[in-house]
Specification:
single chain, about 375 residues, alpha/beta, Rossmann fold, FAD/NAD(P)-binding domain, 3 domains, five-stranded parallel sheet, 14 helices, 17 strands
Length: about 375
């Protein structure tokens, strides 16, 4: 498109929208497709992008993932922020010149390699601490790795790519495939411990939720739990990507999916720029949206499920029958057992991310950044 416009006008032609890679930007200009490339969100995610590109530090660039979760908050009368970059909106307190070396170099253990744990390790290492990061799985990334498996969410993997590269570059000792318990931590005699052990899916205590053919979104995306042809996804009210992304994953497998949610419309918390695309993709594959509806009971009969549901306003109840699999997206509960076991037994103890309280990725990264500066 810009190349076609450039052929018709004598004015300089600029191109913007979704350019987050300086190599791509340079090629567009070099190929004569435009006179200049423009980056907006990419420079929110990493204001140092031009400097890093000029110095050949391409792997150190924090690439925008176009999630629209935080940078569009200004449209809702909130401060502009960034899912990945905790400094955005806090430049006065947290700008580059404010990240000073620690007065005392400490031995810091970070337990959990999700976004909150990696950000805490990154900032602590930048300040000169000796940091060791334990991750019980064989790869860093936490629940982001699950989300990045979903069609149209692959770019979430760039969050992990940047943080992994940085903790490696900064000399953090990474111990993969090692679950750290209280005994392991205490044996290390650390000066400070950051617990970032995440969360686990929560299954409500409604009748039938613990029965066969009922799985969680994590079971489906991470554990590969098989789903039958007729699926009902139960959104617990968060109305965010956890349910919607799993639905897209199942629709991509040719499943018939109905979403029930207690809120006014499916995906109500999705960014405004993203919701239309999700609706188009899901409804074109004949997904069924049933809003303002809550689950009351699941009955199990002959290998199938029957869901008893109720409209929030009319109080009308009805049954959804012939369901092969029920997928629960009903929230999470903190995995804070290690934090509780260490409380009062180490000099400095912090909890970040879902271990502190299950929330979203930017909350985990802000937690980790704050603690990294506090150490």
């Amino acid at each position: 498109m810009p190349a076609a416009i450039k052929e018709l006008v004598e004015l300089p032609v600029f191109i913007a929208l979704r350019i987050n890679d300086p190599v791509v930007a340079e090629k567009i200009v070099a190929d004569g497709q435009a006179d200049m490339t423009v980056m907006v969100r990419a420079l929110i995610a990493d204001p140092e992008l031009p400097k890093k590109a000029r110095e050949g530090r391409l792997e150190e660039i924090r690439r925008c993932i176009a999630c629209n979760q935080e940078c569009r908050r200004g449209n809702r009368l909130g401060a502009v922020a960034c899912l990945q970059n905790a400094v955005v909106g806090h430049e006065k307190e947290w700008g580059v010149d404010t990240l000073t070396p620690a007065a005392k170099r400490k031995k810091v253990l970070v337990i959990g390699g999700g976004p909150g744990g990696m950000e805490a390790a990154r900032v602590a290492a930048l300040r000169g601490h000796r940091v060791t990061l334990y991750e019980r799985k064989d790869a860093l990334g936490g629940q982001i790795n699950i989300e990045a498996k979903v069609p149209n969410r692959e770019e979430m993997g760039n969050v992990v790519r940047f943080l992994r590269h940085e903790v490696e570059r900064l000399g953090v000792q990474i111990r993969l495939g090692q679950a750290a318990d209280a005994q392991t931590v205490l044996a290390e005699q650390p000066d400070a411990v950051v617990v970032a052990t995440g969360s686990r899916p929560w299954v409500p205590g409604l009748p039938g939720c613990a029965g066969p053919n009922v799985v969680t979104v994590v079971d489906v995306l991470e554990g590969g739990a098989p789903a039958g042809q007729n699926v009902v996804a139960v959104d617990g009210g968060e109305a965010f990507w956890q349910c919607c992304a799993t639905v897209e994953y199942l629709l991509g497998q040719g499943k018939r999916v109905e979403i029930i949610t207690p809120v006014l419309h499916v995906g109500m918390e999705l960014p405004g720029e993203s919701i239309a695309g999700f609706y188009q993709r899901a409804l074109s594959k004949e997904a069924v949206f049933t809003p303002s509806t809550r689950l009351k009971e699941i009955r199990h009969e002959g290998g199938k499920c029957t869901l008893v549901v109720c409209n929030n306003y009319s109080k009308r109840e009805w049954e959804i029958t012939g369901v092969d699999t029920v997928v629960l997206a009903t929230g999470s509960r903190a995995e804070d057992g290690l934090y509780r076991a260490l409380k009062g037994r180490v000099t400095e103890l912090y909890a970040v991310g879902d271990c502190y309280a299950p929330r979203k990725i930017p909350d985990a990264i802000r937690d980790g950044h704050t603690v990294g500066r506090t150490l």
